[in-house]
Amino acid sequence: MNARIMATPLQTGGPVLVESKRPEGPERASPTPNKARRVRALADALGVVRILALDHEASLERQLRARGPANNSDVVAFKRLILDALTTSVSGVVLDPVSFLACKASIPPAVGVLLKAEQSWMAVTSAGDRITVVNPEWTVARIAETGADGVKLMLYYHPDGTPEVLGRQRELAQEIGELCAQFELAFVLEPIGYPLPDDERGDGEAAEANRARRRPGVVVESAAEFARSRYRADLIKIDFPVDLRYVDVYSARFGNSRRPIYDLPAVRRTCRSLARSCDVPWVLMSSGASNGEFTEYVRLGVEAGASGFICGAALWSPAVERYPDKLGIEQALVGECRQNLVNIEDALSAARPPQGTSHLAGRP
Predict the structure, then answer these.
(1) Its pTM surpasses 0.90
(2) Does residue 30 belong to any structural domain of this protein?
(3) What single DSSP character describes residue 132?
(4) Number of domains the chain contains
(5) Which of 17, 73, 153, 213 to pair with 3, CA 20 to 30 A apart?
(6) Minimum mean pLDDT among 73-77, 193-197, 217-221: which range?
(7) Residue 311 domain flag
(8) pLDDT by residue (tens digit) across 330-363?
(9) Which CATH number covers residue 315?
(10) Is 356 buried (19+), middle (13-18) or exposed (0-12) by CB count in 10 A?
(11) What is the DSSP letter of 87?
(12) Rg (CA), the chain
């Protein structure tokens, strides 16, 4: 049974959770020694995951173009500057394959490497469902040949989507998981929610509030589905289940004083529900959040059992703002961006690998 979450007025204690439980199914197979070694390469010696996300392609190029001339080579050069400045402080990186091959020299040997399997674009159905499209030029077999430690698959998923689309997305996740097992690569699965038309009722702030009400259910149910052993995921990368802009103690700080939907105890209950639904180690993505918001995501997530983070722009966005000034970019990376990482590390201090996941217990 998956968790069902619905928002209720704050005076009644926030969202009401139907208790979730771990998905039933066959026992999870133990990883082979080579696969376990590659999973461990993504974590630090304590098994805590601290991964720098740089798999952005078209979206990052658009951001740079808004500030100056930029092409694919400029995007790769920008990523190289980030890697040079920040990889000494993280346990792993996630990149697109082309950037990885161009930037290998900037990645220390002790840093684990994930390569994305999906394209930067998606297919969209007439009903509003989103479909992940894998990159046919970069199969799991070819990724294995690069020497990377694993594959990351971003999978669009909404539990109330069209059954045919949900089945197709599940089949894709299962196929990539099986291939990663065959090639003894780590498999990081990233189910990412999106709004269906019914989630966006109203205009402007009303639509945003409706999305905030649906978000906990989408996140928790997606985690429960893809924690099933059939997908063979070694790590689940998941969104924080509550939009802090709609939480009473955070709305003034992050949400321009939006009308609260949730209170802090409800947020903690939702995080615990997420943890109960997922017996695969899970980490938090930044998903467009500011550094301040993401730091709180991590702080609350590790209380419930999150094993770390995979974070992109919430770390390095100040460097984008200095483009195309190379000196300015480098100054931002050693200044604001490093401080962003310190902020997250402080929130991460309580993170530990969950019980029963010794294959994530860090490098030997």
Answers:
(1) yes
(2) no
(3) E
(4) 1
(5) 153
(6) 193-197
(7) yes
(8) 999 999 999 999 999 999 986 666 544 555 654 4
(9) 3.20.20.70
(10) exposed
(11) G
(12) 20
